[in-house]
Amino acid sequence: MSFSLPRGVASLSLRAILWIAVAAIISLSYILYTPEPAVRGMQPGAADWIFRSWPALFASALGMRLLLSGPIANAPRWVQKGVRLAMVFFVYSGFLFLLRWNPFWAWMNSLGFTNRNTDMGVLILVATILWILASVRVFFGWLRLPFFRRLGSRASSGSAPEMKVTQPTIRFSDVGGMNEAKEQIRQIVGNRLDPGKFGKYGVVRNGILLYGPRGSGKTFLAEATAGEFGLNYYYISPTQLLSMWVGNTQANIRKTFESGASRRPVLIFIDEIDSLGSTRQTLSRESDPGGAGRSYNNSVLQLMQSIDEHRGDTGIVLMAATNSMEGLDQALIREGRFDAQIRVDMPDEPSRKWIFEAQLSSKPWKPFPLEQFARRTPGASAAKIKSIVDRAASFAAEQNRKIGESDLRRALDETGGKDRPLFQPVEWSDLIVEPELEQELRDLVRHLNAGWSEMKGMTVPTGVLLIGPPGTGKSMIGKLIATQTKRSFYPLTAADILGGHVGASVKKLSEVFARARENSPSILFFDEIDGLLPRNNGMLDTHDTQLVEQCRTEISQLLPEHNVILVGTTNHLERIDPAILRGGRFSEKVEIGVPGQPNRERLLRKYLQEVTLDFSVERMAERLAGLSPADIEAVCKSAVRTAFGRSDRDDFIPPLIWEDFERAIKKVTLFQF
Question: What is the pTM of this model?
């Protein structure tokens, strides 16, 4: 049977043992060792037993190290720096006196160091260099070598990181909307600031968890809460609490909460709490040989214990924020720790107008109507609106004038979805389609860009389905819409979504939709949607059925303020799940056919502009009737290679003849026209 002391008791016992060892060494040195006095003819004094005895010098250095990790851990920096300089000097001096001890050189002789004078000189030189480097490192903070970083980390592990404490001036009146959330916060803050009113009923309510997408204003609401009730605002960043040393993270959590509690009345705000309080790991002896998982679980438990310890204290309000609610440990966010869980979502149109006005009012601006800008920013977070206003302010600052309507409009025009992985921009000049189709696409782009759409009773379509044979440029059209509307672009194919195990595809799909909402305005591009969301003909397996149902759910949850547009492509409309095609999902269908005679001529001139033809472009355009743009491009490239094969020079392509194209058509289409 074995047992272990609590961590705090074990740590205290070890420190006490070390202090006893320091006192014992110095005492024994005084009793057993008689050093030569500093001045000949004088009796050695107490200082000689310490400053001329190497055991006492080393013990004194250890005592200073214990002071740094305990009694003076929170002392001013100049005090700690002085103690560290003295500690380094004592170690250096102790080593020099150790070199004068005859038993030391007897041991060195056994190791092969027989020339005492030479070896002593080398050791003194090395020790002096190390002492100078260590002193410079302590005094100036230079020479941050790995050894000194580890030494500094260990030495400073006794004190918790310093957190920011402020007294915000913003209030609830500076936060637009969110009346229900403000009322919930008032109830909990009132419970902790006036406990006498609720104490006789035994009611203790504390803990407010704010959750929602990034940039929605959770931290701003926390600051406004502190300002509204005159509380000190104690901001905790969990990443500052994490430590590489076992047990230090838990100690940092305890000390940080104690430091915050000493500043009451105080609002203790833990930002991004999911980085410290995510779900604990299920461990076994085999799965966690290094103990990292157990250490993390202990940190989560310590966070819970600190919340339990201080949630009932008068004058302390606990608040936290996260954008990953599902990743938090359920025991951490249960009622009794966080009694109010408030979703902070993206602002609606009235709130967006208010945010524009609040941001502009703190800057030199010439008042103008803001309704159109609120309408043009559906799905924009408070942080994004602030970024737009800052950009407009920079335009005005360049000309040293007040911010005007034109500045804000320019900033809004230049601010769009920027999340476009592996995205090649497409311009109107790159697109060759029939005039009617081009006009329809221009109207769609104009509609998506227009700020007056809602004023005229128009609504943006949720989804557009591009229908046509392969190679007609459907993918290019999707990228064109994203380019011209300045939207983030997320291409989805069956290969991107289908996962290797049950549930992986559904999770990937949800993640892409979430990313599109956070980086709006955006486009979700479903390439070959019939392969990703097929019709249920009775032969679909459970995996495919779950994927289709999840996609229906995700699309149905898209709101106008999310500003996410769906664009899909297909060659076979009849193979797509009918529920996906209904109104409110992919409600509009655009048919894309093969190019006509004028567009075939444009394509030929585009692909053959660097070579000479032995026939007219019009004649070849007639010959290629019925081919898609992709096939026409392939025929042109193949014809050029065929012509090059007829040349007897490696740097010359002869004029293309009709037979070159006939051979190219056979290679590309596999049949004669």
Answer: 0.56
